[in-house]
Design a protein that fits this description.
Blueprint (H helix, E strand, L loop, with lengths): L1 H42 L7 E5 L6 H7 L13 H11 L3 E9 L2 E8 L4 E5 L2 E5 L5 E3 L11 E2 L4 H18 L1 H5 E7 L3 E6 L4 E6 L5 H19 L2 E5 L9 E4 L4
Parallel strand pairs: 1-3, 7-8, 10-11
Antiparallel strand pairs: 2-3, 4-5, 5-6, 8-9, 9-10, 11-12
């Protein structure tokens, strides 16, 4: 019995040793194959970057984007960390949106859209555009001297509030929109804005409401008041729903 038990134990040990040997052999083969494939991928001329395409640039120079990429034509594309390159571009270029860095056949493609400013904000003494995503960014190209209204907002939520109002006001305002130079948040979700000739308009609640009728009424009242009094200090539409628009002429006019 003891002899049979020892034989069985030796047989199992031998089988286990064979199994371990085979696993080791497979692992060594896989490692060797990985090394050879890796050497080929990382050293072969077939996988060198031959083109770097920049798609979406209008006001931003392609050379600006290329200068921020951590790779060049001739580098191995499998050594490129596209995620890190994309993250770096997003950090350095907030004026870009929908940014993507991807590999193509023998090349790299950088694609994006340029943000379109709805207005501007002043941050640290600098004029920055702000778009519908409530994202401040440097103004470039045609937008540098564009006639944008200023958003006087201290917090991000105030800025969001004004952007939401601007998105419904601007399409309905017609020619009046071009006269607005500044928007401000007021108490209890009200908004006011300044016109180019110095008139402050206390608009009232920023909801949709009767925008077209309210704008037509404002234009009519301002036209009449200017013909009567000359310069106007403010127009108050807080009582528009009651059928009243208050006008205050400037002193001495």
């Amino acid at each position: 019995m003891r002899s049979k038990f020892r034989y069985e134990r030796r047989r199992r040990a031998f089988a286990a040793a064979q199994y371990i040997f085979l696993i080791g052999l497979l692992f060594a083969g896989a490692w060797w194959t990985y090394g050879r494939v890796s050497d080929y991928l990382f050293t072969s001329d077939h996988f060198k970057i031959k083109t770097i395409e920049v798609a979406g640039a209008k006001n931003i120079l392609q050379s600006e984007i290329l200068a921020l990429l951590p790779f060049r034509i001739g580098d191995n594309m499998f050594r490129v960390n596209v995620s890190a390159a994309e993250k770096n571009l997003k950090s350095c270029k907030p004026e870009l949106k929908d940014l993507s860095v991807s590999r193509t056949f023998q090349g790299i493609k950088v694609s994006f859209r340029e943000r379109v400013p709805m207005a501007f904000v002043t941050v640290g003494g600098k004029k920055l555009g702000v778009d519908a995503d409530n994202k401040p960014f440097p103004l470039r190209g045609e937008y540098v001297n564009a006639p944008l209204a200023e958003l006087v907002a201290v917090t991000e939520s105030e800025r969001r509030f004004l952007i939401d109002f601007l998105s419904i006001f601007k399409p309905a305002a017609g020619e009046l929109s071009a006269q607005v130079v500044r928007f401000r948040p007021e108490a209890v979700k009200d908004v006011s804005f300044d016109l180019a000739d110095g008139v402050r308009v206390y608009w009232g609640a920023a909801g949709k409401g009767d925008l077209k009728g309210k704008i037509e009424r404002l234009n009519s009242v301002l036209s009449d008041a200017r013909s009567r009094y000359g310069q106007i200090e403010y127009a108050n539409l807080y009582y528009y729903d009651d059928g009243r628009v208050l006008i205050k002429p400037k002193k001495g006019s």
